[in-house]
Amino acid sequence: MERKNAWLKYDEAEMKACMEYCEGYRRYLTASKTERESVAEAVKLLKEHGYRDLKDVIAAGETLKAGDKVYSVNMDKTLSAFLIGEEPMEKGMKILGAHVDSPRLDIKQNPLYEDMEMVLLDTHYYGGIKKYQWVATPLALHGVVFKKDGSRVDVVIGEKEDDPVLCITDLLPHLGAKQMSKTAGSVIEGEDLNVLFGSMPVEPAEAKEDETEEEKAARELAMKGKVKANILNLLKETYGIEEEDFLSAELEVVPAGACRDLGIDRSMLMGYGHDDRVCAYTSLTALLSLEKVDRTCVCSLVDKEEIGSAGATGIQSKYFENEVAEVMNALGQYSELKVRRALANSEMFSSDVSAAVDPNYPGVNEMKNSAFLAKGLTFNKFTGSRGKGGSNDANPEFIAKLRRIMDENEVSWQTAELGRVDEGGGGTIARYMAEYNMQVIDSGVPVLSMHAPWEVVSKADVYEAMKGYTAFLKNA
């Protein structure tokens, strides 16, 4: 079943609309290098569209009603937004769920060290990466540091034009014969992903007759590591943080630089974190385009998908279920049974990216069941690996309904599997939400170079995803 290239159906007006929409997405992605930043940017958009913090509604003892708009943030890394529908929530919701975490390098708890008069930061990679892709490329440091007194310090180094960048060094080819004989998975070892952080030493000060204990400690520290002492001084002067504050920090190393137009025709976008912030943005803006709905519509942006959706901010936590209960309580509709009915009667798009066929590597795909750039929103009936292990596997009744909705709303869409059988596989949040007995299917934007520091999407697919998510919320 041949799917047409979406660009071919656009007239001048829709072409302009597509480009303008993707410019908004480009700005969002550039500003959203971490899950905290992604949620913060989402909250800005929600507030601009009249959404209120659910905590404020609860604190004021207010009652929600149809048409109200509320959102809830969990630990600054997970968000759920609700547009209250006309029907009771126990009849089910229409949910768009995406994740806002992306593969990266996390700074370890005790990371800073000096070696050969250079200071480096130890990292631990997060999610599925090809480690060799992260060396000899400009990197930025994003995150938060919480000091012992509870105060928060936001850190962003490497994004402004006049900022310094960081990097992980690599061997020159002349000395890399042994390295190049290794397999790709071991060319760069995980413990070798050490970020170069500085190299300028300071001369230790001479002891004063009346020096204080603090001055003595600083002088002795400088004698042990002149470069490290200089770096610690800079961190103290710039951010007010001590070395011990790394213990309560959440710092992520990500590619430095903005999302950029790709191709001489500007038809694509190259940026860090398309997986899965492209589906987060398209899901959120689909919700924001609505004012009145029959059933309650929800956009949920979650964390930890890249490492199994575990933890307090992953979809396996009770956070989403709890927030549904809170919303129903504020509506005067709460009971344990009604919450269970609301979840079981819901329909959901697990909004996650799909692997686009790469003309450089076609052999890993089965072409009849693969996603192609610029052919629209991609539906994956199942993900998983080797016999559909760990998959949701959507029901055909639900798929038939979605086919009708997409076609009636002139959305370009396609279906895909994640590569050839026995070639690989992967998972999404779909399986965990399906445990509530709701209808769930994976759907998202096809991506080239997925999980690389810089990923590629087609602007047409981004635009069609937004249209498809909007059609689902309006018509499901």
Features:
12 helices, Aminopeptidase i, Domain 2, 2 domains, alpha/beta, 9-stranded mixed beta sheet, 476 residues, Aminopeptidase
Write structural notes for this entry.
The chain has 476 residues and is α/β, with parallel strands linked by helices. It has two domains: 6-102 and 272-475, Aminopeptidase (3-Layer(aba) Sandwich), CATH 3.40.630.10; 104-255, Aminopeptidase i, Domain 2. Helices cover 29% and strands 23% of the residues. It has helices at residues 12-30, 35-48, 54-59, 177-180, 213-224, 226-239, 274-288, 319-330, 336-344, 396-408, 430-433, 459-475; strands at residues 52-53, 69-74, 78-83, 94-99, 104-115, 118-126, 139-146, 152-157, 195-198, 249-255, 260-262, 268-271, 297-302, 347-351, 354-355, 377-380, 384-385, 413-415, 425-426, 439-444, 446-447, 455-458. The strands form five sheets. Strands 1-2-3-13-4-14-20-16-18 form a nine-stranded mixed beta sheet, with helices on both faces. A six-stranded antiparallel beta sheet has the order 8-7-10-5-6-9. The longest helix has 19 residues, at 12-30. It is globular and about 80 Å long. It starts with 11 loop residues before the first helix and ends with a helix. The model has no long low-confidence stretch (mean pLDDT 94).
